[in-house]
Amino acid sequence: MKVALITGITGQDGSYLAELLLGKGYEVHGIKRRSSLFNTDRIDHLYQDPHDPNQRLKLHYGDLTDSMNLTRIIQEVQPDEIYNLGAMSHVKVSFDMPEYVGNVDGLGTLRILEAVRLLGLSKKTKIYQASTSELFGGLPENKNERGFYDENSPLYPRSPYGVAKIYGFWITKNYREAYNMFACNGLLFNHESPRRGETFVTRKITRAIAKIALGLQDKFYLGNLEAKRDWGHAKDYVRMMWMILQAKQPEDWVIATGVTTTVRDFVKMAFNEVGVELEFQGEGVDEKGFVKSINQEKYTSVITSNVEKSKQLFIGKEVLSIDPSYFRPTEVDLLIGDPTKAKEKLGWIPEYDLADLVKDMMKSDIALMKKDVDLLKAGHEILKQAE
Ligand code: NDP
Ligand code: GDR
């Protein structure tokens, strides 16, 4: 039985990857952080009974800032494959805690590589490093002649997160070259899912629209609507992580859809899922910076099929405003990736396109928010979370 160790197993990608590897018969070990509340929601369905000796998913307390802890876990687990997915992964937040991000996302990668080397596991253990399209920085002049970022595009990170991840990228490459380790970077473009963290833009949008459609919320706030991202589905991308470690040679890979879309259009697509046509006033950002829901006919049909009472509340009202506090000191304006190498050399075929992704996320958030509606109907209070 193959043994895998996943850092960041409690995150979006970690949970899908654990599912995939368990399905392939792996014994899967994951590193989770100690927290004052349970933080394993995304993997609880995989982790029924920790006392069952046949349980193939095993969790260890740990942290990427703690070398001794990582070394001990790797020694105990003797993994065939390590997927280093753990990170402070929020770009905007990285401007608020740049030193911590450098420590976790940059040096954390070194700690994993060095532990494997010192334990004499360099030949046995393959390592996947969660690199990112943020390394490209979105500079137009760095795209290839076809207009995409690929494995040969110059790197120019635009945030403390990107700068920390570029250290992780280069140290992984360096250990591969210096010590002949099977260590690979996956330069993954944005990938989302119903399990996406609530403060990333796609999930923030689908949650808010689900709440608006169900009458639980009036409006929501976003930052830069003009940013363009190449969005794929996390399920497709974790499959590729595994494929990267099954390749003949250790290499670096770009994983993307090759299609780019503005945040503004993502909002429109998500509203369409609940039957609402959005009209953006003044190209989206007028002097007040708001967007209106104006298609009365379509919207009424949604409201009547959902929350009759709130019909009057939303027609013709602002449903989205711009809050400049979500702007970033330096922004990555446009990302679009070229996955040709992954498709041709590894045979990767994504199953989801953006329309499927939006549908999947909206369906899931509507179902989730309906539970809140049921709670309200039963007379319970629901907690308002800061978005
Ligand atoms: P998430 O933010 O959902 O998950 C991050 C995981 O890292 C969580 O399990 C988190 O634990 C854990 N973590 C955070 N800090 C530490 C630490 N100090 N020590 C150990 N673990 C820690 O990210 P995703 O699943 O979306 O992304 C996975 C990886 O891929 C990340 O490295 C991210 O930077 C990278 N990436 C993501 C892309 C995307 O679009 N999703 C694109 C390209 C790269 P906890 O649950 O306790 O917070
Ligand atoms: P990103 O994802 O920074 O690309 O990093 P995020 O969803 O946070 O932002 C995407 C774009 O949307 C704009 N935006 C907003 N973003 C957030 N979070 N909240 C808002 O209210 C908002 N309004 C507009 C942003 O300015 C940005 O342009 C993600 C993370 O998963 C990284 O870990 C990963 O490396 C990269 O994707 C690839």
Automatic annotation (TrEMBL):
The entry's keywords: Lyase, NADP
Entry's Gene Ontology molecular function annotations: GDP-mannose 4,6-dehydratase activity
CDD domains on file: GDP_MD_SDR_e (cd05260)
Chaperone among keywords: no
Any Pfam family hit: GDP_Man_Dehyd
Keyword Lyase: yes
Catalytic activity as recorded in UniProt: GDP-alpha-D-mannose = GDP-4-dehydro-alpha-D-rhamnose + H2O
NAD(P)-binding domain segment(s): 5-361
Functional description taken from the UniProt entry: Catalyzes the conversion of GDP-D-mannose to GDP-4-dehydro-6-deoxy-D-mannose.
Similarity-based family: Belongs to the NAD(P)-dependent epimerase/dehydratase family. GDP-mannose 4,6-dehydratase subfamily.
Name of the protein in question: GDP-mannose 4,6-dehydratase
Source species of the chain: Polaribacter marinivivus
